[in-house]
Amino acid sequence: MIALAIVWSILLAQVMLALAMAFALYRMIKGPRAQDRILGLDTLYINAMLMLLAFGIRTANTIYFETALIIALIGFASSIAFAKFLMRGEVIE
Amino acid sequence: MRAWLPYPLFSIALFLMWLLLNQSVAPGSIIVGVFLSALLGWVMVKLQPTRSRLHRLGLMGGLALTVAADIIRSNVAVAGIILRARGRPANTGFMSVDVDLENENALALLACILTATPGTAWLEYDRRRKSLLIHVLDIDNEDLWRRTVKRYAAGLKEILE
Amino acid sequence: MTDWLHHLLILPILLPLAVAAVLIPIDERDRTLKGAIGFASTLVVFIVAMILMRLAAAGEGSLPGGGVYQLGNWPAPFGIVLVLDRLSALMLCLASGLALAAQVYSMARWHTAGHHFHSLFQLLVAGLNGAFLTGDLFNLFVFFEMMLAASYGLLLHGSGPLRVKAGLHYVAINLAASSLFLIGVSLIYGATGTLNMADLAAKLATLAPGTRQLVETGAAVLGVAFLVKAGMWPLSFWLPAAYAAATPPVAAVFAILTKVGIYVILRLHMLVFGTAAGASAGFGQDWLLTGGMLTIAFGTIGVLASQAMGRLAGYSVLVSSGTLLAAIGLGRPEMLAGALLYLVSSTLTIAAFFLLIELVERGRDAGADVLAVTMEAYGDFDEDEEEEEVGVAIPGTMAILGLCFCLCAILLSGLPPLSGFIAKFALLRGLFDVPEANQAIAISAADWTYVALLILSGLAAMIALNRVGIRTFWASIEGTIPRVVVIEITPVAVLLAACVFLSFQAGPAMRYMQATANDLLAPLAHSERVLSAPRAGGQ
Amino acid sequence: MSHLTDLPSWAAIAVCGLLLLGAAMTLIGSLGLLRLPSFYDRLHAPTIATSGGTILICLASMLCFAVLQSRWIFHELLIIFFVIVTTPVTLMLLGQAALYRDRVENRADVPRRPKPVAEPDTE
Amino acid sequence: MELILSAGIGALAASGIYLLLRPRTYQVIIGLSLLSYAVNLFIFSMGRLRVNAPPVLEPGGVGDLLRYTDPVPQALVLTAIVIGFAMTALFLVVLLASRGFTGTDHVDGREPPRGD
Amino acid sequence: MLSVFILAPFGGSVIAIFFPSDQRGATAWFAGAIALICFLVTAGLYPFVATGGVLRFELDWIPELGLNFTLRMDGFAWLFSALITAIGFLVVLYARYYMAEEDPVPRFFALFLAFMGSMLGVVLSGNLILLAVFWELTSIVSFLLIGYWHHNAHAREGARIALTMTGMGGLAMLVGMLLIGRVVGSYDLDAVLASGDAIRNDPLYNAILILVLLGALTKSAQFPFHFWLPHAMAAPTPVSAYLHSATMVKAGVFLLARLWPVMAGTDAWFWIVGLAGLTTLLLGAYFAIFQQDLKGLLAYSTISHLGLITVLLSLGSPLAAVAAVFHIVNHATFKASLFMAAGIIDHETGTRDMRRLSGLFHYMPITATLAMVASAAMAGVPLLNGFLSKEMFFAEAIETHLVNALDAATPYVATIASMFAVTYSLRFIHSVFFGPLPSDLPKKPHEPPRWMRAPVDFLVLACLVVGIIPAQTIGPFLHTAVVSILREETPSYSLAVWHGWNIPLIMSFVALSGGVGLYFLMRSYLKTGIEGPPIFRLLQGQRIFERVLVTLSWKWARSLEQRLGTRHLQPQMRLLVFLALAAGALPLAVGGFRLPQLVIRGIDPAFALLWAIGIACAVGSAFLAKFHRLAALVLLGGAGLVTCITFVWLSAPDLAVTQLLVEIVTTVLILLGLRWLPKRIEEPETADIPLKVRFRRLRDFLLAAMAGGGVALVAYTVMTRPLTPDTIASYFLGQAYHEGGGTNVVNVILVDFRGFDTLGEIAVLCIVALTVFALLLRFRPHPDSLESPEQQRVQNAYDDDHPERAEGESVAEYLHIPSVIMRWMFPVTGMLAAYLFLRGHDLPGGGFAAGIAMSIGFILQYMSGGTRWVEERLRIHPLRWMSLGLLVALATGVGSWLFGYPFLTSRSEYASLPVIGKVPLASAILFDLGVFSLVLGATVLMLIALAHQSVRRAARAHARAARPEREAAQ
Ligand code: NA
Ligand code: NA
Questions:
Q1: Where are the domains of chain B?
Q2: Which of F297, B10, F593 is CA-nearest to residue C216?
Q3: Would you report the helix, strand and coil content of chain C in percent, each value rounded to 5?
Q4: CATH number at residue E39
Q5: How far, in Å, are C109, C470, C477, D116 from residue C482 at the CA level?
Q6: At what angle do helices C309-330 and C248-271 cross, to 10 degrees?
Q7: Which residue in B13, F448, F556, F566 is deepest, having the highest Cβ count within 10 Å?
Q8: Burial, F494: exposed, middle or buried (Cβ in 10 Å; 0-12, 13-18, 19+)?
Q9: Residue F416 has pLDDT above 80, yes or no
Q10: Does chain C reach chain A with at least 3 CB pairs under 8 Å?
């Protein structure tokens, strides 16, 4: 019984995270402005990282960790590049 | 000591990071960690960041607790705003706060805190006017936000300057 | 314990790699030094290739380690192995010979047209040699990419609008083809669980029909990727433009690039889909034949339609490819040796022709000094570079150029008595040859078409070269005599001399080719040799 | 999935609760991205995921592995820390970029650029 | 799993290929990237799919394909990713150079008379 | 001994080219000596062949292909050799005086000797393929000889046409020879000559016949291939005398005679050869009448006489063959002398136009006399050699060989052609040597130098002697030749001058008187007329040929090239995709592919949702890539992220890490590039898109969808199949720890089992980085993108407008706080890289991931601080890192040689150190270090090189702004 509850709640959590990703995707596609899309991508990254953490709990395996850590640590690099491109029209001056 | 460890606190932080990453306190791991954190501290010298000294560590704990509490509160508040967003337009808006912080690192920390707190978004900091432009989701409590920001700034100023 | 001679096998890959690495940080202003190091490396590789060919010619018994080099000491099919046999030794020799010629030629002026020429050149050599030596499908992909990446770099060497435009198409198409390569290789792995060619050959006949179908699908997709490289119609429209746009020494080495595609097709066709492949034997042969013949036809048309010599040479590459593809597609064991001879001869000729073109055209209109063209593309960093002339301008330039052009024309049109003719003769003889036992075999329509195309393509080359030769050498009014230095004309002469030598020594050459063909006709023996090679250290 | 059933039930309930709560916070945050009317409003949305969502889910993970593998080094802390440190950079830059663009287009609903004042003293 | 992944591979490949056939260099480079995702996943899928069975052995252990994923396609994908990355960079620079020289971002280096 | 015939001329040719160009005499004497030696050797060999013997010389060339260097001399070959060497000597002598001071004589004689060698090769070849080899050599050398005066457009044209025609024929002949070889089983001439029945009865006979005849008829300028010969007259006269009368054009009839025993006698032979010969005979003679150029007249006359020989050979009768051989010799003597005479006239008067020449007898009586005798021989006047063979021809013409129209027409055609021959011969003599003295000649004519005329003297004497006492002079040699062709078929014949009153004699009489009459009827017309015969003039073979050639080889080829090929990228890509799709689908379709069962069960909703997102990203990216570049890039990132999560989900953490890192770098790279692309105008309304474009997009969409579907189908098929048990993967899983020394099997594969792939892969990265670097050094931005981006302009203007603001303050403000955080992140990234690197061998990570992670650390610094800022602080030497990395990786691999193992054999141990404990000490880690260094260097190099463009742009824009001022100042 409790095992079933665990399974279902983890699944539910993953589905919620996936839905959260879908909302982020909506902004990426819909915009309307470039900044909205970039914000969407940044959110997608964070959500994806959380999805990986949830996956780790689900499988009780730590293989997700490096990927999640990299998202947390340097995942923002591409968002920054986008943002700077918007602001200055050039990524590196 | 300075010659060996130009940024001792930072190097310690790096060393901690190394231990956490490797999830191990084995001697081999520690030796490598010490070596790497010292080395990377050295690399940092090249980038010439602004130095900051921690003055009052006790205050830091207090500030951390305040921030944590604020974060939890804001999370709930903002979640509520979002869930109600469809019903009526949220009362959002821009506001400027005077923040008298000289130290770059302190400003950066303030940025982290404000950003981590849902409901406030850091937009612009004018170094000449020492004025910070933020966007808040709940402009009705403008004064509350202003007080909060000032409190954080004062805390950081005490700790870092 | 392996003996040191055994390591000769991998030297043609490692040495250029190491030399490329050494050359990278050397200042671009020390071009002479870079060139000298590069030349020494290419020369050593060439010598090693010659030694390897001699060893291979003497038979597998005389090869160290049976001609199998197990990288990391892992046995086939698990690890990657390099396999030396007569065919790979031949290709190695051909490639390094061309490279040597191009290397020398480039040192007169072309290596100054851009940065890192010599490093890229060495890496190209390494990639080529690796592609010829490897016995592993995925490793082949890696070496293909190495070779292609270097070829992109070299094609773009010197920059300029023409090169960049041609380069864009070249890169785009080859990138798409590389995706196909990956799909094909992985599909074969997914179906069979192996990446080793010899292992695949040994396994194929035993596979279940469904699995074999997947392997065939994979091989077909792979085949398309190789055919892009080989320049089969209609996958080859990028080729004449790209080859014509490349700087001459680069174009000369490119003459072998299409042959890598041909080599791999020949290798896989004979090994994996050879006599031991059961129901899959001869897979795709008809397509090769049709495609090859269409390629000859298209190449011939292109040769006729070309006004510029560069494009003409590019289309000659297509004719050469088509001839070989169709020869493979005809599936006559008797033609194999001739095809190999043709491969060698046409590659040498086309390379010499590419080198020659620029020398000849240099005199035609003095305004079009190619360096001036590239100067236009120079960034602001390089404007201080002065043109350095190496060697001494030689007397009798026009006569020597004319003679070289004549030889090229004769070779390209397959006119007697040079190797171009002998190779075509060998091909046709192989086609017409009837084994004693089987007098009744008739000449099919495909055979006749092939013969006609072979003859017509030669004729077209003759007409086109005649036209352009007369225009260049006979009809030029007061053309300035091009300033050609010894190290530019020598490589051309040496390449052509190699063709002449091949013509006189056609007997021994044909014996080698015949032995190579016999090797190719015994795929299982090859598999056996690769799979049963002993590990070093007696494990 | 079998491993999780090895958890004692209190831990299992706690882990699941934290996880669900974290996921729900994240979902709500992203919902904000969907529902909030202006860009500046939406700028707040991901912060719920970076603060609430991340902290809760990391806690769940720490608890889970601590109980399951009796391991007391919480490397998830690194994730929390770095997410909190790096998110502001993106959001700040994005917010300023948006502000710039809106100002250039003379949007009425953004604050004008403040009149600059002379620098009283050097930095 | 298999169905979903193959649908994903198909969609990535189709989008990538569609872009490869388009006239603007930027479309082509995006197409190449999408195609390389598809190809990488395709290679990966050739080792069959496994959840929670990483190719990391216990120290001293010996693996078998029943308990571990097939490491070979993974190694191949790693190589393919690296090479794909390199080629994307290269193509990017070539397209920039082409644009610099010709002034257009059309793949043929000149604008077509009209239309697409 | 026979090899002398090849060695001497070719060797002489090579030596002659090195004579200094002013040594006209020496070169000529040298060439003459060679020819004379060859002739003397020929003469000396006569006794061996006289008795029916065959001399052979054999040298191995390519025995594998049945092609050996076989020389073979029988009577017929001897006769030809004698002709070639003797006339060759005479022509050299003549040329010594003929060639002008300014002509590059060594080249002439070198080519001349080479030609002589080739021609001797043709007649002496004992192997059909060798014969073809020499055959084509004669074509090539004759091309160079005709084009000797290449400043003359006629010479160039003539040379080109001659080579095209004869070369084409030669190639066809080669195929014919190959077919003969197939039928006979050997290319050896003796074997072939012994297999006449086999050849004639083979189903391939017709093919062989046509192919061989194509060779023979083109070479001998037979209708309809005759037109190249008159154009070859642009050659120096010695060349015409030698090649175009005595030797090369005879090669065709030589071949017909040579193969006569094995190929003649069939209906096909009779019809094809006969028709060609008769037409040529008649038309050649007719055209000759109307030529105004002396050499043109002689050329058409040659064509006609070759036609005569061809007709004789077509008849299939032994007697006719005898006549043919006889006429070959006779024609060579009189025609060579006539050409030389024409050359003398040209040389001495400066023109060859018969309308301008007249009365030359007055100035050069001896030459005139000689020419008259030779012309008479050409016309077939009794007591001259031409008469004898012509009589034999008439005799054969009236015989019935086969009952058909062609055979019936032969005597009439022969008589008419003979009549024409008399006419043009008479015209040659009468209009040049008689009549009023010339008035407007370029030079004042006189007799040529003594030795220039000597060859003519000799040849004319030969005509006379042979004409009067044939049996005693040419008789034995002719007989030897005839016997060697006909063997036991040799008929009895007589070479007597007088055969009594018979029909041939009457035909001769009719021809002679008719010809004279015709000449005087047409005299006035010819004197004023224009070049070429009436009516036919309009139908010039050369013009038709030229037009056909131009149409085929130029116009059609060009339009076909355009139609069958393309220079656009899109169609090429479309073809590639289509062919790949077809190639993949065909084996499945042929083999009866069964769709795998769809398994819907066990679908994870979260995974499904994830891929719904991934697919939306991919499709969205595809549709936005044209007008919303940034959005497409954002969506591409989304697709990459989904791919990355999939890798984690499906137990491939290494892939996920690498994919993610690469993803980030790629995004930054593309963004760096985006700045240099042109602005894209907004998307037009859907309704405005032309139908054609929409159709094209739909087609591409369908093709892409099919290809994508195909890939998906194959992937699904393989995934749902059970795994093959004996894959190499099982071996790796089994050996990774114990022999590879690592627990992360993927990484052990990368650095050990398949470390060679990794080496190649980093080499690729290195190459690309170098290429990108080199290309960017030459990067020249389009003027459009030379200006700084709009944002910067606006922000800088703001700073400029406000005097209290410093330059660039806006950007500094913008990046102020972010850059603080990013700077502190740099060592953190370093730590991450170290972590990824060190744990790689046992857990996910490795040198590649570490290198990319570190490079992202660098990018962050560049983005926050700007190029100058970073480079003032950090010394970055990416090229050195790359070099070092590659060398370290290589050195690690080579290190195993020292232990006697192959390249890249790993040495791995877990060393137990005091305090520290067990430490993995795999050589593979060193290898990975090389990978790290190279990847870091390469990635940073590419990014920096791209980033530097902005700095350079600024400098350039500055220079540009300064230029107009400078120009104004000047
Ligand atoms: Na916030
Ligand atoms: Na490693």
A1: 8-47, 57-160
A2: F593
A3: 75, 0, 25
A4: 1.10.287
A5: 14, 17, 14, 68
A6: 10
A7: F448
A8: exposed
A9: yes
A10: no
The Å distance, Cα B102 to ligand 1 centre, comes to 22
Among B10-14, C473-477, F545-549, the range scoring the smallest mean pLDDT is C473-477
Question: pLDDT band at residue C387, thresholds of 50, 70 and 90?
Answer: very low
pLDDT category, C363, cuts 50, 70, 90?
Answer: low
With an 8 Å Cβ cutoff, is A71 touching chain F?
yes
Span F767-797, pLDDT tens digits: 999 999 999 988 888 888 878 888 888 888 8
Tokens of F104: 């590059």
Of C300-314, F213-227, F438-452, least confident by mean pLDDT is F438-452
Q: Which helix (H) or strand (E) holds F735?
A: helix F728-735
Q: Can you give the pTM of this predicted structure?
A: 0.92
Start-to-end Cα distance in chain A: 60
For residue B136, the surrounding DSSP H or E stretch is strand B131-136
User: What burial class does residue B136 get, using C-beta atoms within 10 Å of its C-beta: 0-12 exposed, 13-18 middle, 19+ buried?
Assistant: buried
Tell me phi and psi for residue F148, to 5 degrees: -55, -45
F326-347 pLDDT, tens digit each: 889 888 888 889 988 888 888 8
> CA angle, D39 as apex, D35 and D40 as ends, to 5°?
110
- Closest residue of chain A to D58, computed from CA coordinates: A53
E56 in a domain, yes or no? no
C-alpha–C-alpha distance, residues F233 and F160, integer Å = 13
Residue E97 is part of which domain span? 2-49+68-102
Residue C173 in tokens: 């198409």
Average pLDDT, integer, range C184-189:
95
Specify if E59 maps to a domain.
no
Bridge partners for F912 per DSSP: F918
Interface of D with B in 90-119 (CB under 8 A): 91-92, 95-96, 99, 110-111, 114, 116-119
Q: Whole-angstrom Cα distance, residue C433 to residue E2?
A: 54
d(CA A28, CA D30): 12
pLDDT exceeds cutoff 90 at C488: no
List the single range of F7-11, F341-345, F517-521 with lowest mean pLDDT: F517-521
Higher pLDDT, C113 or F937: F937
Taking residue C441's Cβ as centre, other Cβ atoms within 10 Å add up to 12
Other CB atoms within 10 A of residue C452 CB: 14
**In terms of DSSP bridges, do strands F55-62 and C81-83 run parallel, antiparallel, or are they unpaired?**
unpaired
Q: How many angstroms separate the CA atoms of F496 and F505, rounded? A: 13
Give a yes or no: residue E83 inside a domain.
Answer: yes
Categorize the per-residue pLDDT at C364 as very low, low, confident or very high, splitting at 50, 70 and 90: low
* Amino acid at residue number E78: L
C79's tokens: 């690890």
Q: How many domains does chain E have?
A: 1
CB contacts of E52 in chain A (<8 Å) are 59, 61
- Asked if F456 and F337 count as a contact pair (C-beta separation under 8 A), the reply is yes
Interval C92-110: pLDDT, tens: 999 999 999 999 999 888 8
Total residues belonging to chain F:
970
